[in-house]
Structure formats: C-alpha cells, structure tokens
Amino acid sequence: MRASVFIAFFVSILMASSANAASPNSAYEGQRIFASHCQLCHGPDGKGGGPLASNLGLTPTDLTRTIRSRSDTILRKIISGEDGPTISGRDRHNILTDAMPNWGKVLSDQQIDALIAYMRYLGTSKHELLGDPLLGAELYGNYCAVCHGEDGYGDGVMTQILDMEPLDHTNPVAMNPMTNEELIQAIMTGNGEYMPGWEGLLSQEDVEALVSYIRLLTQ
Ligand code: HEC
Ligand code: HEC
C-alpha cells in the first residue's frame, strides 16, 4: 500500500515536471517543424512568400508583422484550429477564411508551442539565421556541448574538471548584443585560455550553421 502511494506520488512529480519543463531547444524544434509544415505557404522567413501560396493563389499572413500582437493562447487556437469559430474580438478576422489549415490534428501541443517560440524569434530577433540550424545542431553536439553544455547553458562536462566559464548561449543579455559577424569571428579565432579557435577545422558554412543554431537556444 505504502509503496503504491509512493509510486503514484513519484509518477505525479515526474508528469508535473515534464509538463512544466520549458524546453530550451523549443525554438530550434519549432524551426524544424516550420521548415517542413509552414514555409510552404508562409515562406522560410515567415513573410508569406512560400511556393504553395502562389500555386493556391493564397495570401498567407506575414507572421513577422502580426506575431508581436498575438498572445500564445490566441496563436495556439489559430494554429490548431481548435474552437475556431468561437474566437471573438479583435482576433476574429484571422479565422474567417479556411485557407489556413487546422494543424491540431497532426501536431501535438508541444510542437505547436515550439512553433510559437520560433515564430517569436522570426518576429522579434534582429539577427538573421544565416546558416542551416540542423547542420549547426549536429556540429554543436560534436564540438561545443562538451564545454557549453547540451542545452547551451555553459555547463558542459568539461566545466567539472577545468576552471572555466563558457558563454551561456541561452542568456539573451550576453547573446543579443553580439552580431552574427562578431560570433563568427569569435568562433573562428577563439577567446581566452579555453575557447579554442575553429578556423581550419570548421568551414565558414559550418560556423554560420552553428551561429544559427545557438541563436535559437537564446531565450
Ligand atoms: C496551405 C497554406 C498554409 C500553410 C501550409 C500554413 N499556413 Fe498559416 N496561414 C495561411 C493563410 C492563407 C493565412 C491567413 C488566413 C486568414 O487570414 O484567414 C494564415 C494565417 C496564419 C496565422 C495567423 C496570423 C495572424 O496572426 O494573423 C498563423 C499564426 C499561422 N498562419 C501559422 C502557421 C503555422 C505555424 C503553420 C505551420 C504549422 C502554417 N501557418 C501553415 C496559410 C497557410
Ligand atoms: C574546451 C572548451 C570549449 C569548447 C570545446 C568550445 N568553447 Fe566556446 N567558450 C569556451 C569558454 C571558456 C568561453 C569563454 C571565453 C572567455 O570569455 O574568455 C567560450 C566562449 C565562446 C563564445 C563567446 C566568445 C566571445 O568572444 O565572447 C562563443 C560564441 C563560443 N564560445 C562558441 C563556441 C562554439 C560554437 C563551439 C563549438 C564549435 C565552442 N564554443 C567550443 C569554451 C569552449
């Protein structure tokens, strides 16, 4: 009896923590889903010029212009199509047409939240994504995570054995003031005792991909 109560308690803690855990990689996951499901109509930059839009004669919204005025709750409804006709007030015009597909049938809530994180990046960041974040993620896992940490917090395993503080890529105060060019330069040439220079090991394309990936880690 006591054991089963204990197990139930433990499972509820596990479920609560997985439900609340904000994935630091969510904008990155959102970018992957956006590329496969949304850019067809909305275009890679979210501005509405995707290839399917011209085929269908649609005018998809320029998401970079509307995203700032939309709450997460409204965005979830628009994307999932859930309760569409019941949304009222100033957001009503977005669901008047059925041109925007209802994604609730094929995407999970977590995937929709990841999309929202990515669309917020498109709408608010002044830093363009220069390279391919997918390639960047792979290179990051191979070469950078050991110091900067799997999720970019600057807490990789090497920090347990060497006295260093790798940049926390999730920290907007540290990341946002740096331009893409400055980040590329820093990665190519290195900094201080422990941040190595990657010139010669990584190509310009690789480093641009890395910069795009770490931009999406910034919260
Ligand atoms: C088949 C084309 C098509 C695809 C694919 C598509 N959309 Fe849309 N989307 C539209 C159109 C058209 C509108 C404008 C609808 C309207 O105003 O009634 C729109 C509107 C939106 C809006 C509302 C914008 C606003 O705030 O006013 C959001 C958010 C959105 N789309 C997100 C997405 C996401 C996320 C995906 C991928 C999961 C996606 N769309 C895929 C065609 C598409
Ligand atoms: C051996 C550990 C280590 C590895 C591997 C490593 N870094 Fe670093 N990195 C650091 C440390 C430590 C700093 C902080 C340097 C400082 O501020 O003196 C840093 C700083 C940085 C900075 C900021 C540079 C600046 O001038 O402020 C960037 C960007 C960066 N790293 C990206 C990367 C990328 C991308 C990779 C993988 C290709 C990588 N790092 C691999 C340890 C490492």
Mind explaining what this structure looks like?
- The protein has two domains: 99 residues, Orthogonal Bundle (Cytochrome Bc1 Complex, Chain D, domain 2), CATH 1.10.760; 85 residues, Orthogonal Bundle (Cytochrome Bc1 Complex, Chain D, domain 2), CATH 1.10.760.
- About 12% of the residues have low confidence.
- The chain is elongated and about 55 Å long.
- Helix 2 packs across helix 6, helix 5 packs across helix 6 and helix 7 packs across helix 11.
- The protein is mainly α.
- Helices cover 52% and strands 0% of the residues.
- The chain binds heme C (2 copies).
- One heme C binds next to helix 2, helix 4 and helix 5.
Keywords:
2 domains, Cytochrome Bc1 Complex, Chain D, domain 2, binds heme C, 219 residues
Précis, in short:
The chain is mostly helical.
